Amino acid sequence: QSVLTQPPSASGTPGQRVTISCSGSSSNIGSNYVYWYQQLPGTAPKILIHTNDQRPSGVPDRFSASKSGTSASLAISGLRSEDEADYYCAVWDDSLSGPVFGGGTKLTVL
Amino acid sequence: EVRLVQSGAEVKKPGATVKISCQVSGYPFIDYHMFWMQQAPGKGLQWVGLIDPADGETSYAERFQGRVSIIADRSTQTVYMEMSRLTSEDTAVYFCARGIDLRNSEFDPWGQGTLVTVSS
Fold this sequence. Notes:
heterodimer; A: mainly beta; three-stranded antiparallel sheet; 9 strands; 45% strand; B: mainly beta; seven-stranded mixed sheet; four-stranded antiparallel sheet; 11 strands
């Protein structure tokens, strides 16, 4: 059971907007930056969002994120087939003194 | 280019020990912490432990404490993770990942992953 809670699945059709939620607590999301990772099938995770809502260079602006209190969310607009992947939220947990991850959300583009 | 290259897949019997490596290039080895993550088949990511290559200081997730050891070899710019008393529950892909900042969860890049299979 993951410390951070994500929906196990999400889906949308090409061009649609989907959001993925990530719920935590005061010892993690409530007090530290949230990060999002994209894991394409059979590959290693790749950073998608850093410091709550910042996109690394090379990440399309179709990807956006936000944080409020002990929850965070990732939004993907203009959905494309290549967005089909697993998405993970991650944050440092002060109680555990280490990073914690959400259980992952499998995004399907219908 | 920053690269993390991990050693190949391993097959071990229950009770055995496995040691996998992560060789880095493209940045000063001692400037960043290295993290290890576990991903069981069809499951999510879990933190295993971390090391500061500058002084060898380590920290481990509670569930792996006492069974995992992470070391850094500055001469070869390689980080090793050793896990002992393996059970079928340790069957997973293990990733090394460079930590950008210790008390954050920004990992970039990641190694390609090493599959460890524990089977009798």
